UniProtKB/TrEMBL annotation:
GS catalytic domain sequence ranges: 218-642
SMART domains, A to Z: Gln-synt_C
Gene3D superfamilies from the UniProt entry: 1.20.120.1560, Glutamine synthetase/guanido kinase, catalytic domain
Source species of the chain: Gimesia panareensis
Record protein name field: Glutamine synthetase
Length: 747
């Protein structure tokens, strides 16, 4: 290889001291930086500022409102927050003044209307409190109108055709039910006001508005059911959520040496490491010190923001972790979940780490989900999905539970579509996530009760037991009436349903909108049936309820499955039961344009047909763009990083063989032959992928998505297959990319 060719094929990356180094040495520099890492922040002192004093410290909470607002204004706000009453806008100036004073005392100089566009991320527009006073000075101002309404650009976010470029007006609207908070930065603080985001025509351009609408629909229908059972206090029924966030942590030096992680959030190349997760030694293992320091810091910030994080632990895959909060109102849980992901990412940077929330950043090990625990309840009735010790006697619970079963079966396709994305496709159906088939796990106790109902009436419940392990010094434990099932996408787990198919990187708003609305429809159906059957006579309720529950279990019991969701047998059985198996996003998203789904959302005023169509278009666009980015990265990395490294190694082998031949030594060309064959295969696969990318010219979004799903992705995987095989052969000092072994295990 001549000097000119060698120089032209060399890629460069910035070294740790700012000098230019070859990619091989850049990888070595990354390893050196990781292994010599020392924390740059002083340790936190929990004795000086206990955690109990931190919680809600940066939140304009109800207790803060009570101290700072006139009594009547406070009462009106609480009625809106707790009872869902209409907001009295005449109090806005008083509230704005109190929030401003509180925020300025916290060091705030700006306020921001925070909203959640269809990108699935968080958006914010910052404005200063300061205004010129006309005398050469400035005063801090914040009016009621500024609190209630903002005006960001309504055309620069994905709208799915609702707004075009020249139609720019959009509004943010204060959501009083989600508290304002202070976001801290090293150089200042900002008052953040959670808001809805709508177009000038009043159509929802965001994730929050449909959540609020769906919660309203659920409350309306749940009140009808409660009235049948004699509960007429009108206490607001709200859906609740507790999302379990899984994520990976990698050192920033590795992250910035991987263009695929940086741009796509997942590795597009990477051979399986010698050791993966097969020993099951990472799950619930001792948390590495550096990671634990990050967790303490992140939790501290989350506590300040009023986010009730409860659990942290190592997850199954090496380098994977989980954080989980307690239940909150679905709307607040959605806002807090976005804030939690932002906080994890920001805090990780302080410790030289990068937080990856992509569903499948590393092939061959478990991906990450966001199990959304969902329930509903009210202040007077408590959790409506709590079965008690004898669920066969709890008629109200059985009705609400039956309504959920009916809803999941009837709208199984919708539930699959709201967790569909290019990234989650890599996770669903693998052995770390539920299959794409939506089914309900009830457990032994509830399955038995519903089987009794089907047979004519429930008379008993499998009792809870006591667990002893044969060691005298260990106390006996209360034993649940049934086991849990981690392979089910929608599992009952004692007093809630856990929607396990949700992806780790997505907003939980879409799944919550779907769950709230389909259950509202099911409660509407049940209430109508019971109202007609009883005619207002409570004495007829039990017989009518038995008939209704029998009908539900007969017509919708096919969705109940307590077995192994990973097994091939279940896939065959599910098909016999008529359950959908929508394996990819392009299979699932068209469900949004079915008449059944359109009627569902329009009937309960959650989404208009136009708003629903806009979401289908937006999600298809996001799917196509995600894979386009990966396509471009695959070509660039294969051609400018992997191929040059392989050619260098091939050149070394050729040179070695030539030298041995000159010395009349015997030599073996097996390695050279294999590398040469793989180099050709890699070249051919790159060319094939490049040609396929140039051939796609469809203007139909669904057709384009299908092309990227069924043509481009398989060709990308083919390029990866040859590159990954070469990674296991090429000399380690020549390989340009941080390996799985390094990224997953060096912390």
């Amino acid at each position: 290889m001549n000097t000119a060719t060698s120089s032209a094929s060399t890629s460069f990356a910035g070294g740790s001291n700012g000098t230019k180094t070859s990619v091989g040495s850049a990888r070595s520099a990354a390893i050196a930086a990781v292994t010599s890492y020392k924390p740059s922040y002083p340790p936190m002192n929990y004795k000086e500022e206990p955690t109990s004093q931190l919680f809600n410290a940066n939140v304009f909470s109800k207790s803060t409102m009570k101290k700072r607002l006139p009594k009547e204004v406070y009462k009106k706000l609480v009625k809106t927050i707790e009872a869902g009453e209409k907001l009295d806008c005449s109090t806005a100036d008083v509230v704005a003044s109190a929030i401003k004073d509180w925020a300025i005392e916290k060091g705030a100089t700006h306020y921001a209307h925070v909203f959640y566009p269809l990108t699935g991320s968080t958006a914010e527009k910052h404005d200063s409190f300061l205004s010129p006073d006309g005398d050469g000075g400035a005063i801090a101002e914040f009016s009621g109108s500024q609190l209630i309404q903002g005006e960001p650009d309504g055309s620069s976010f994905p709208t799915g055709g609702i707004r075009v470029t020249f139609e720019a007006r959009g509004y943010t609207i204060w959501d009083v039910t989600s508290p304002a908070y202070i976001l801290e930065n090293t150089n200042g603080t900002t008052l953040c006001i959670p808001t809805a985001f709508v177009s000038w025509t009043g159509e929802a351009l965001d994730k929050k508005t449909p959540v609020l609408r769906s919660m309203q629909a659920l409350n309306t229908q749940a009140q009808r059911i409660l009235k049948l059972f004699g509960h007429t206090d009108g206490s607001l029924v709200s859906s609740t959520a507790g999302p379990e966030q899984e994520y990976f942590l990698v050192d920033k030096n590795f992250y910035y040496a991987r263009p695929d992680l940086l741009n796509a959030g997942r590795t597009l190349f990477g051979a399986k490491p010698p050791k993966g997760q097969e020993f099951d030694d990472h799950y619930f293992g001792a948390i590495p010190d550096r990671v634990l320091s990050f967790m303490f810091d992140a939790e501290r910030e989350l506590f300040k923001l009023g986010i009730p994080v409860k659990t942290r632990h190592n997850e199954v895959a090496p380098g994977q972790f989980e954080i989980a909060p307690l239940f909150e109102s679905a709307n607040i849980a959605t806002d807090h979940q976005q804030l939690l992901m932002t906080t994890l990412r920001r805090t990780a940077e302080k410790y030289g780490l990068v937080c990856l929330t992509h569903e499948k950043p590393f092939a061959g090990v478990n991906g990450s989900g966001k199990h959304v625990n969902w329930s509903m309840g009210s202040a007077s009735q408590g959790n409506l999905l709590d079965p008690g010790d004898t669920p066969h006697e709890n008629a109200q619970f059985l009705l609400f539970c039956g309504a959920v079963i009916r809803a999941v079966h009837k709208f199984q396709g919708l539930l699959r579509s709201v967790v569909a994305s290019a990234s989650n496709d890599h996770r669903l159906g693998a052995n770390e996530a539920p299959p794409a088939i939506i089914s309900v796990f009830l457990g032994d106790q509830l399955t038995d009760v519903f089987e009794q109902i089907k047979a004519g009436g429930a008379n008993s419940s499998i009792p809870k037991g006591t667990l002893t392990v044969g060691v005298d010094v260990l106390p006996p434990l209360p034993k649940d009436a049934g086991d849990r099932n981690r392979t089910s996408p929608f599992a009952f787990t004692g007093n809630r349903f856990e929607f396990r198919a949700v992806g780790s990187n997505q907003s939980i708003a879409g799944p919550l909108v779907a769950m709230n609305t389909i259950v509202a429809e099911s409660l509407d159906y049940c209430a109508t049936k019971l109202e007609e059957a009883t005619g207002g006579d409570p004495a007829k309720l039990n017989a009518a309820l038995q008939k209704l529950l029998t009908e539900i279990i007969n017509e919708h019991g096919a969705v109940i499955f307590n077995g192994d969701g990973y097994s091939d047998e279940w896939h065959a059985e599910a098909e016999k039961r008529g359950l959908l198996n929508l394996k990819t996003t392009v299979d699932a998203l068209p469900i949004l344009q079915t008449e059944e789904v359109k009627e569902l959302f329009t009937k309960y005023s959650v989404l208009s047909e136009r708003e629903l169509e806009s979401r289908l278009e937006t999600y298809l666009e996001q799917y196509v763009m995600s894979i386009k980015v990966e396509y471009n990265l695959t070509l660039k990395m294969a051609k400018t990083m992997i191929f040059p490294a392989v050619i260098r190694y091939q050149g070394e082998l050729v040179s070695n063989c030539a030298s041995l031949k000159m010395l009349d030594y015997d030599f073996d060309t097996k390695t050279l032959d294999k590398v040469t064959a793989l180099v050709k295969a890699l070249q051919d696969s790159i060319g094939e992928l490049e040609t396929a990318g140039a051939e796609n010219g469809s203007e139909d979004l669904l057709a384009e998505a299908n092309y990227y799903c069924h043509t481009i992705l398989p060709l990308m995987n083919k390029v990866r297959e040859y590159a990954d095989e070469l990674e296991g052969i090429v000399a380690d000092d020549l390989w340009p990319l941080p390996t799985y072994q390094e990224m997953l295990f060096i912390k």
